[in-house]
């Protein structure tokens, strides 16, 4: 079986997996990295959103061969030690989560949005498609704006 | 006869052509609430004090929930075992509560910690809250449902964790962040499938092409066993305990991706399920023909009436149904999201022929529930798979199976009629038929559940019927006094997998009533808010309505295609009202643009959590009123993912939402919350739709095309590959 080599949250990994295996299963089932969640498997709900070289992908619909040699960041790798990323801090300040299952994906999507747009408009935020069944959308919106302010 | 709709156009301001008596009451209203009103011009007719209300007939019969509701019942039956709830002292002055209720996002763990902190005189950060394992000694004190958790824990708190050492309400009432927020935002919170159970291998299930089809044979076992990563294949044995184990063929593999591929490669022969010939239209026809007649004839009086269809809806929690089971010859251990862990433990022990104390059941806080995890279907399957394959099983439902082969809120059909005489409502009658609600979880322990389920294997039993009626009578109420008031439920036996759902009977029943309340007001040429104030039974209901009417500027001018809508609700001893604004210019893309909600829970515990529940209720109402429903066709829901089942996304949630938490109502009991947020917002949305479009809302969800290509029956979707950005 091929060995797939890439970085996850700053550390190098070599993992045996077929080229076409979805990154989500490599992370969760082979590496034990459980922050990215399964919600649909077909790039619809976005609960598995991670970053590859800082840009958002849905791990359920990303082949592991496509991240060879690249830097994968999951929710576990977002904070700098005990210092939360401003988006995580905004999420805490506004008490955004309910059940929490979609929130790693929501946060990773928000970080990606703020990378692309320092001061996102409501229309930019509306384009986020991550499903939240609990209905935290209003607080997600507020938290993104608060994080944008924090990040200057 | 019904009054014609007013047609599309701006929301009318409060009518100025009301009868003289109405205007007199308006004046009194101004006088009685001058400080409130002075800040908001144009609220004429909204503040009629109770002393000036029309003389209305007494409500007949009296409302059951005024005497006892389901939360009271849970509180009373849970109380005797409250001293058995575990509170352990940890190092450095911290204490840990093993919560005998199930946290799935509602915020009950945080609320419980706040109450315990005050009782023990500790700061909130000295309290840890765990999720209690199944504890049969707790009897009726480990069931989560009916918006009863905080009510029953509040009542039981004097008996939990020893003698009180603190002063009251240092923490309770403060706005605090969820206890698990840091774990959530850092990815450390462990859900069921995140548990580090060694050797519990990923497992998925091949399902029949129709609901509850039966397994006959696998035609290609050898070929599928040879696929990459596959560790085992097993037909799931049929069992007939409290509830049957759902049918399927399990595939265990090294990864879920490999299990998924193998499931889609399986060639399995099935028999058709019992409802293979049924579709939404035929189900609604059966329900309609089962309705009981109204008590009163039309009397030749003015009437407003309607027939209403509700498609099945999916709980669709973000975390699909899942369980880990490690079954050995002499013991078993389970990890799963469970609202009824005691009966789950008892049912598993019975299925495996093990003593109860050899079955350990961990109730793992879940990614949403909304009633779905009252049943333990995934646990039943995981247990049988682990037993059959001789190794621990990590079972996950695919989203497609979660929507199609999980459980649903029953499809329902309603007929309701209001009768008016001499300008007054003298009767409101409502007849409801629904596919029978599976209630075999009972009140969370074996004795009741076993009795309800007898004889095993038949979902429509006398016991099930009785429990559904008890639930209906102790949950569904009316905030109004409309004289002779009857609401009767007829469960209809159909082999569709159903389950309680947030506000299961309540949201449809109250939505219908709120729609007809607007139609009554229109018929009597009264403003919808003023009309409600006239007929609301209780001051707390009138207070929340007045609060939203003022804050939302009820009656303000709206452009064509836009409208306001209002709804009021009482449930679980809590009171709420909602006014929304809707943009209905594009019929296929109706947007709720603003919402104002007032909520009175008696004693607020955590304002942040209260707001969250009301925001979540609003989001759910937007979804199930406007767009989210299941098309059952030839015995299977067509919807198989969130791209097909249209639950609200960010763009569908209003950017302007205000939640007003009413100050503590002195002397009032604490009210429920988890389900309370649906009915007023649902009514407000439907009524705004009616006012904006001129159409009567009658069939839910209102916008319900099959706008997708269904995944083939009996199959999972094909995985998708998206290129990685450079």
TrEMBL record, chain A:
InterPro entries, alphabetized: 2Fe-2S-bd (IPR002888), 2Fe-2S-bd_dom_sf (IPR036884), 2Fe-2S_ferredoxin-like_sf (IPR036010), 2Fe-2S_ferredoxin-type (IPR001041), Beta-grasp_dom_sf (IPR012675), Diverse_Oxidoreductases (IPR051452)
The record ties this protein, via CDD domains, to: fer2
Give GO MF terms, alphabetically.
Answer: 2 iron, 2 sulfur cluster binding; metal ion binding; oxidoreductase activity
Name used for this protein in its record = (2Fe-2S)-binding protein
Q: What organism is this sequence from?
A: Variovorax beijingensis
The record's annotation in PROSITE patterns points to: 2FE2S_FER_2
> A Pfam family matched by this chain, by name?
Fer2_2
- Record keywords: 2Fe-2S, Iron, Iron-sulfur, Metal-binding
Q: What domain of life does the native source organism fall in?
A: Bacteria
Start and end residues of each 2Fe-2S ferredoxin-type domain: 2-78
């Amino acid at each position: 079986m091929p060995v797939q080599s890439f970085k996850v949250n700053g550390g190098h990994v070599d993992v045996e997996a077929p080229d076409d295996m979805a990154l989500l299963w490599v992370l969760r089932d082979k590496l034990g990295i459980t922050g990215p969640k399964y919600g649909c498997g077909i790039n619809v709900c976005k609960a598995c959103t991670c970053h590859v070289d800082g840009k958002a992908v849905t791990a359920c619909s990303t082949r592991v061969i496509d991240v060879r040699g690249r830097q994968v960041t999951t929710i576990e790798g977002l904070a700098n030690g005990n210092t939360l990323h401003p988006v995580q801090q905004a999420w805490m300040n506004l008490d955004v989560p309910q059940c929490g299952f979609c929130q790693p994906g929501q946060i990773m999507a928000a970080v990606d949005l703020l990378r692309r747009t320092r001061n996102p408009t409501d229309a930019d935020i509306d384009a986020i498609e991550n499903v939240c069944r609990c209905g935290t959308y209003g607080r997600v919106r507020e938290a993104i704006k608060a994080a944008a302010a924090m990040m200057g | 006869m019904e009054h014609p709709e007013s047609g599309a156009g701006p929301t009318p301001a409060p009518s100025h052509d009301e009868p003289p008596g109405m205007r007199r009451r308006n004046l009194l209203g101004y006088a009685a609430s001058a400080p409130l009103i002075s800040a908001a011009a144009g609220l004429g007719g909204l503040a009629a004090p109770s002393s000036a209300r029309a003389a209305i007939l007494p409500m007949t019969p009296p409302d059951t929930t005024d005497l006892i509701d389901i939360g009271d019942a849970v509180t009373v039956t849970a109380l005797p075992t409250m001293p058995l709830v575990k509170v352990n002292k940890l190092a450095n002055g911290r204490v840990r509560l093993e919560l005998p209720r199930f946290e799935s996002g509602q915020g009950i763990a945080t609320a419980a910690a706040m109450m315990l902190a005050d009782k023990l005189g500790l700061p909130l950060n000295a309290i840890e809250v765990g999720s209690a394992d199944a504890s049969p000694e707790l009897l009726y004190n480990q069931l989560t449902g009916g918006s009863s958790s905080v009510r029953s824990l509040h009542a039981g708190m004097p008996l939990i964790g020893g003698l009180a050492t603190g002063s009251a309400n240092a923490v309770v009432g403060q706005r605090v962040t969820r206890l698990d927020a840091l774990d959530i935002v850092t990815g450390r919170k462990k859900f069921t499938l995140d548990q580090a159970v060694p050797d519990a291998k990923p497992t998925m299930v091949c399902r029949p092409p129709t609901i509850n089809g039966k397994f006959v044979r696998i035609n290609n076992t050898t070929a599928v066993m040879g696929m990459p990563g596959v560790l085992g294949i097993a037909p799931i044995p049929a069992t007939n305990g409290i509830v049957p184990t759902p049918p399927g063929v399990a595939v265990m593999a090294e990864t879920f991706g490999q299990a998924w591929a193998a499931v889609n490669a399986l060639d399995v022969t099935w028999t058709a399920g019992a409802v293979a010939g049924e579709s939404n239209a035929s189900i609604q026809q059966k329900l309609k023909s089962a309705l009981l007649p109204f008590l009163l004839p039309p009397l030749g009086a003015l009437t407003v009436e309607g027939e209403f269809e509700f498609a099945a809806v999916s709980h669709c929690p973000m975390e699909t149904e899942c369980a880990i089971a490690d079954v050995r010859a002499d013991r078993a251990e389970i990890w799963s999201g469970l609202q009824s862990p005691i009966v789950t433990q008892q049912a598993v022990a019975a299925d495996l022929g093990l003593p109860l104390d050899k079955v350990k059941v961990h109730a793992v806080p879940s990614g949403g529930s909304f009633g779905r995890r009252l049943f333990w279907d995934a646990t039943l399957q995981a247990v049988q798979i682990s037993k059959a394959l001789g190794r621990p099983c990590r079972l996950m439902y695919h989203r497609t199976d979660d929507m199609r082969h999980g459980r649903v809120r029953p499809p329902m059909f309603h007929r309701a009629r209001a009768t008016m005489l001499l300008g007054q409502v003298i009767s409101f009658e409502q007849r409801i038929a629904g596919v029978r609600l599976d209630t075999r979880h009972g009140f969370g322990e074996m004795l009741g559940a076993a009795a309800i389920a007898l004889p095993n294997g038949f979902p429509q039993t006398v016991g099930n019927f009785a429990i559904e009626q008890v639930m209906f009578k102790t949950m569904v109420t009316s905030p109004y006094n409309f004289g002779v008031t009857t609401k009767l439920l007829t469960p209809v036996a159909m082999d569709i997998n159903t389950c309680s759902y947030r506000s299961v009977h309540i949201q449809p029943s109250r939505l219908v009533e709120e729609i007809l309340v607007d139609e009554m007001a229109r018929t009597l040429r009264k403003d919808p808010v003023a009309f409600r104030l006239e007929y609301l039974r209780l001051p707390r209901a009138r207070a929340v309505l007045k609060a939203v009417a003022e804050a939302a500027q009820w009656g303000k001018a709206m452009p064509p295609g836009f409208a306001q809508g209002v709804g009021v609700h009482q449930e679980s001893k809590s009171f709420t009202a909602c006014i929304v604004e809707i943009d209905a210019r594009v019929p296929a893309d109706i947007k709720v643009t603003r919402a104002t909600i007032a909520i009175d829970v008696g004693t607020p515990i955590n304002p942040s959590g209260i707001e969250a529940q009301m925001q979540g209720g609003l989001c759910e109402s937007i979804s199930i009123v406007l767009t989210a429903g299941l098309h059952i066709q030839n015995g299977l829901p067509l919807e198989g993912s969130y791209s097909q089942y249209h639950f609200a996304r960010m763009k569908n949630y209003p950017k302007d939402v205000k939640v007003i938490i009413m100050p503590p109502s002195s002397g009032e009991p604490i009210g429920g919350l988890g389900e309370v947020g649906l009915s007023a917002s649902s009514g407000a949305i439907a009524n705004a739709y009616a006012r904006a479009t001129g159409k009567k809302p009658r069939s839910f969800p209102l916008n319900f095309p099959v706008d997708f290509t269904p995944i083939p029956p009996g199959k999972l979707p094909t995985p998708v590959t998206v290129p990685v950005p450079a």
